[in-house]
UniProtKB/TrEMBL annotation, chain A:
This is Phenylacetate-CoA oxygenase subunit PaaI. NCBIfam families: PA_CoA_Oxy3. InterPro entries: Aromatic_CoA_ox/epox, Ferritin-like, Ferritin-like_SF, PaaA_PaaC, PaaC.
TrEMBL record, chain B:
Residues 127-167 form the PaaD zinc beta ribbon domain. It comes from Streptomyces amritsarensis. It holds the Pfam family FeS_assembly_P. PANTHER family: 1,2-PHENYLACETYL-COA EPOXIDASE, SUBUNIT D-RELATED (PTHR42831:SF3), FE-S PROTEIN MATURATION AUXILIARY FACTOR YITW (PTHR42831). InterPro entries: Fe-S_Maturation_MIP18 (IPR052339), FSCA_dom_sf (IPR034904), MIP18-like (IPR002744), PaaD-like (IPR011883), Zn_ribbon_PaaD (IPR056572). This is Phenylacetate-CoA oxygenase subunit PaaJ. It comes from the Bacteria. Gene3D superfamilies: Fe-S cluster assembly (FSCA). Residues 22-88 form the MIP18 family-like domain.
């Protein structure tokens, strides 16, 4: 049975991992506000960010005070995947990141929702939201891949650039003992292969992890740009403790 | 989870649930919380406080705090000394929880109501959505996300009006 590992410490570890994924990707997507290519897309990215923020709030509240966890932790204490902290880049990079992550999150939450563990209620709720995120990313991948020479080249470059961060998606997370990670990876690869082919693009080749990168984000090891992102995200709360709207 | 399901609901609890359900939705004031299907129940506890169980439409729905405050205000005004609103996730809310009256009001307000769907099924994007302005089923999707997370933006190809569609969840 999925997620029946209910020891308090392992629940905390898993809630931090999933909560940080949602929080950090939400912040990255929020950076598009005021910069998206068209108004509809600005609204779409903000809505996806809001869904993720809602998931993050619930998950982090399972661990402790959500604000303290979001705004007062140091970089090395964050347990998110390196994929979600990658900078937005051009629009194709954002879509590639969305595609890799939302297919993974949708498949993982569907599996957690079928179980009876502590994450089942949230997963059952969130899986319906992530279905829309996944659809959004897939539709854009098709549109960019099947668009102009420029859009196709950019989408292909983005898929390639982020490929090396996708191995970490399938590193077992402590506290999610019942998940069949190998099967999850197979479903993810099949889905990716399908959409990338339909878009007229090529699935990148090469290793899906660096020599040291597998599971690194989950251990608190992050990439260079993450520190700058955190500085921006945490600056207000740290400078004005207790500030509220 | 509804752990008190086997305890019968008292008359006062039913009355309070009705009151909580009559509160308008803060973002779609044309609907009540009861019609939206987000009020799960009211329980009176021995120490005299009322516990209202509320479920969010979307996990990130920012309206949940305003809903809680409005429910507290209404029940307090009804003479309940202490009201606590608890948010529950399971069973997950679905657009199928919107009442028939709620759907009618949405359409009248200019928002295409969600289509019924099988729970856990795929995102239904192929069935047509009726334009709330002219009634044509000849409409197209502009964006899967609109003014709020729960809506998609569509356009009617008959009357050319863009409109919001309360998308299926």
């Amino acid at each position: 049975m999925t997620g029946t590992d209910t020891g308090a410490a392992t629940v905390t570890a898993a809630a931090l991992a999933l909560g940080d994924d949602a929080l950090i990707l939400s912040h990255r997507l929020g950076e598009w506000a005021g910069h998206a290519p068209v108004l509809e897309e600005e609204v779409a990215l903000a809505n996806i960010a809001l869904d993720l923020l809602g998931q993050a709030r619930i998950l982090l509240s399972m661990v402790g005070d959500e604000d303290e966890l979001a705004f007062l932790r140091e970089e090395r204490s964050f347990r998110n995947l390196q994929l979600v902290e990658q900078p937005n880049g051009d629009f194709a990079h954002t879509i590639a990141r969305q595609l890799y992550f939302s297919v993974h999150q949708h498949e993982l939450y569907a599996e957690l929702a079928r179980g009876e563990g502590p994450f089942a209620p949230l997963a059952a709720k969130a899986v319906k939201e992530t279905a829309y995120h996944r659809d959004h990313a897939e539709q854009w991948t098709l549109r960019l891949g099947d668009g102009t020479e420029e859009s196709r080249a950019r989408m292909q470059a983005a898929l390639q650039a982020l490929w090396k961060f996708t191995g970490e998606l399938f590193q077992p997370v402590e506290g999610l003992g019942g998940v069949d990670w190998a099967a999850l990876e197979e479903r993810w690869l099949a889905a990716l292969t399908d959409v990338v082919e339909r878009a007229g693009l090529t699935l990148p080749e090469g290793p899906r992890t660096g020599a040291w990168a597998a599971g690194a984000g989950r251990q608190g090891l992050h990439t260079e740009s993450f520190g700058r992102m955190l500085a921006e995200m945490q600056h207000l709360h740290r400078s004005h403790p207790g500030a509220s709207w | 989870m509804v752990t008190t399901a086997d305890v019968p609901v008292t008359r006062l609890e039913a009355e309070l649930a009705e009151l909580a359900g009559s509160v308008p939705d803060p973002e779609l004031p044309v609907l009540t919380l009861g019609e939206l299907g987000v009020v799960r129940g009211v329980r009176m506890h021995e120490d005299g406080h009322a516990e209202v169980t509320l479920t969010p439409t979307y996990t990130g729905c920012p309206a949940i705090e305003a809903m809680s405050a409005d429910i507290e205000r209404v029940l307090t005004g009804h003479g309940i000394p202490e009201v606590r609103v608890t948010t529950v996730l399971a069973p997950a809310w679905s657009t199928d929880d919107i009442s028939a009256e709620g759907r009618r009001k949405l359409a009248e307000f200019g928002i295409a109501p969600p289509r019924p769907h099988a729970a856990g099924g795929p995102v239904p994007v192929t069935l047509s959505v009726r334009c709330p302005n002219c009634g044509s089923t000849d409409t197209e999707l502009l964006s899967r996300f609109s003014s709020t997370a729960c809506k998609a933006l569509r356009r009617c190809t008959a009357c050319r009006e863009p409109f919001d569609h309360f998308k299926e969840l």
